[in-house]
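ok so for the tutorial part 2 we go from a plain amino acid sequence to predicted structure tokens. step 1 is just haveing the sequence, like this:
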Amino acid sequence: MLKQAWLIGLLALLLVGCQSNTTKVAQDGNLPKPAYRAAVAGWSVENRPIMVRVYGSGDDVVLLMAGIHGNEAAGVPILERLGKELMVNPKLLVGRTVVLMPEVNPDGVKANIRRNVNGIDLNRNFPADNFDASKGHGEEPLSQPESRAILAQIEKYKPNRIITYHQPLKCIDYDGEGAQALAEAMGEHTDLPVKRLGGRPGSLGSYFGIDHNIPCITFELPKNATGQSSEDLWNQYGLATLASIVYPKAIPSEFTETAQ
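step 2 — the prediction. this is what the tokens look like for a chain of 260 residues:
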């Protein structure tokens, strides 16, 4: 019943969202108005939807996600704001597809807990070569619906790079071939240092970055980012986020000039 209620509410929201997309005004009149496709990537343990929103249709694909640890949710409003920026700035989507999963552990975010409600750390539940079966990691990889939903979207869209938002280590961590250059490009627009922490057992970075050589960035926000307004978070970390979208190109000048 709970899943059905969520689904009914979700369909209503999607209908409203599709209608509102037609009223968006792009800043560059020479480009078509962007639109996004929204879908349910999966369902959490407590039957909350795990949403995915896809912007653009270009060959260069970047996937960004937040909230895999429910008590590290400051990245959620950053990705929500990013979605708004993509809607009004179509040049960011030229040749690109941007896949957003703003809240991949919705039960954990709701309860403000690190793990999912089964007590599993979702960022230790991927089938990496270094997976470590345990009570907190899962007895086997992909034992949780949330980690399976993430894997399914990555397999579907085959991103060229993956950005995940965490707290509270205050650095830009990286895994995978070419990921250091991406981390440094993001680091040019924030005071967070680039620092490789190493792949954790069964983590997304270990599986996709180290095992499969997809550049993966773990964007570690400070602890005090929790509770900051969406505007403050975007002012501090928005340009670094945009750098991950346009990489290896530079951020369009109107964004950097506005920030100054």
